[in-house]
Amino acid sequence: MDKNKQRRTMIIYMVTVILAIVLFNQFLWPSVLQSQVKRTNYSEFLSSVDASVVATVDLNRGDETITYTLRGDDSNKVIYETTKFPDDGTLVNRLEKHGVEFKATVPDTRAATALALLINFLPLIFFIYLGWRLNRTLKKSMGEDGTSMNFGGDGLFGGMGVGRSNAKEVKGEETGVTFKDVAGQDEAKESLAEIASFLENPERYASIGAKLPHGALLVGPPGTGKTLLAKAVAGEANVPFFSISGSEFVEMFVGRGAARVRDLFKQANERAPCIVFIDEIDTVGKRRDAGLMTNDEREQTLNQLLSEMDGFDNHKGIVVLAATNRPDSLDPALLRPGRFDRRVPVELPDLAGRTAILSLHAKDVKCLPGLDFGVIARSTPGASGADLANIINEAALRAVREGRSAVSQEDLQESVEVVIAGEKRKSTVLSEHEKQVVAYHETGHAIVAATQKGGAPVQKITIVPRTSGALGYTMQVEEDEHFLSTKQEMKDRIAVLCGGRAAEELIFGEATNGASNDIEKATSIAHAMVTQYGMSETFGMVALGQQRNRYLGGGTELTCSEGTAEQVDREVQRLVEEGHQTALNTLKAHRFKLHELARYLQKKETITGEEFMAIFTRDDGFAPKLQPQAQ
Ligand code: ADP
Ligand code: MG
Ligand code: ZN
């Protein structure tokens, strides 16, 4: 915007203000102040006096006016006003004669003028103030990005921060986070430790001529500690930490995001060595090829970010860290060497990592001695660091609820279930028949699981409804972690999932909707076997789908032709049906145990894996056709 335009805006503003003030004084104030005053003429006043209807008269209020009130007007609400006449000396007598109460007030001119001045100038002062703010805003938007007026948001009335980045600077010491606060993630830490050491001692690197990466990109699923790691780098190196979230860049007004980026880097430059952390960078850093749906603002911001990252002098020691869980959608320009050339994967923790994270967070709460975090870690495959931190907190909350002063193993166990399946739902009361159905269903899962070779042992079976909607569940816990699954293991898994429905069919001859979640899981395993893992006879080793959003569980998208898709469906159907048959056969072979265990479960509502195995493996004389696998 140029100077002329600015001047024109100011002139329009001034004219509006003057008009407003004139209108104000002419019409609004008088009508407010004199709404209750009626003007009359002198002869009317005199005839009112003669008719003895006047109650009080004020002779000298103001200079040239007489005000009076009439009798009969309730509580003298209406004030009449008339102009003073050159007095012939008879008025006072006349008033006396008619019994009017009269007085004369000497007006307090000073107070009146002060009040009048205030009333007249208050609006003016207000408008002048507004104009001053407007002017500032205009100047600022001109100076800072030169593209447009930024009247939005905090422009005119709000804070002064137009175009200022709202990166919060937290001093390294103040983040209070170091690598010690991040458990597991050893590879990520190692990779970032180098950056920390560079920031601590840039000269050492400069003297050899080594250049450190301008930026590192932390990628991984939500809750794995990306933000935490970035803070820890600043804490380790003891440098200022500027953090901003990608979404803060993207605002309604064009040019503002770019101004923020510029400002952020200016601040960082003054405080170098330091860390600039951009959280959720995918909001600005999306690929710029979106076709018709282009977003100018985002592109400008991204371009500014790219040029800033190229521009800064790395000997000073500014390192840009960014975090995202959608690396596939980032613009390739961001990823080229010289920008985010280092990619640090922050994956879901493995068994050892989960144990470490649990014990780390357990330090913040009071625990009974001898807690076994390994068991908890084993029953939470796929949990992120944030989930585990939440489990510890839930356990502490439960301990308080139960009136204990320290967290016990049982609290931990229960809170795992709360995180997995939701709270116990006391309001859901199952009828005896429904309870029976659920008991058979869960026992069905457990028996199929227990008969499989190498399957995860059953740890707990329960038919207490949960807030997630589950009416019961069977918990299986792996002995240890494995990273490869065979085709047989996947088929076994499908059979276990079919076990619930199979038991219902076998005993009640009828299906219920209680198996919907099982069906969904079984189908998705079968689908992955066919389309991703090359485990079907029909297709062999051909990838038929492409994974979307790996870190956000986006599932797969079929990339094959329609005809093939039909075949895929048939193959998936066949795999699930195979599992269903296996489950039916297993349960038929263990029919007696199924009855006994289901009744036991219905009575006790929750049984442990040991109780289950004790009954299941007990020799009653009827040897089943299939030998159970003792664990
Ligand atoms: P992200 O940014 O990857 O989504 P955060 O860094 O915000 O995840 O992590 C959320 C919380 O989870 C942290 O504040 C911390 O309490 C906990 N957490 C996650 N990962 C870890 C870890 N490896 N060690 C310790 N705590 C962790
Ligand atoms: Mg985060
Ligand atoms: Zn089930």
Task: Report on this structure.
This protein is an alpha/beta fold and 631 residues long. Among the domains are: 168-288 and 295-345, P-loop containing nucleotide triphosphate hydrolases (Rossmann fold, 3-Layer(aba) Sandwich), CATH 3.40.50; 351-419, Orthogonal Bundle (Helicase, Ruva Protein, domain 3); 432-617, Up-down Bundle (Methane Monooxygenase Hydroxylase, Chain G, domain 1), CATH 1.20.58.760. The chain has helices at residues 3-33, 42-50, 91-97, 109-144, 172-175, 186-200, 202-208, 226-237, 246-249, 256-271, 296-311, 332-335, 351-362, 373-378, 385-401, 409-421, 432-450, 487-508, 516-531, 562-589, 591-604, 609-617; strands at residues 37-39, 54-58, 65-70, 79-83, 101-103, 168-170, 215-219, 241-245, 274-279, 318-324, 342-345, 458-462, 473-476, 545-547, 556-558, 606-608. A 6-stranded mixed beta sheet has the order 6-8-9-10-7-11, with helices on both faces. A 5-stranded mixed beta sheet has the order 1-4-3-2-5, with helices on one face. It has a 3-stranded antiparallel beta sheet with strand order 13-12-16. It is elongated. The structure holds adenosine-5'-diphosphate, magnesium ion and zinc ion. The site of zinc ion has 5 residues, from helix 17.
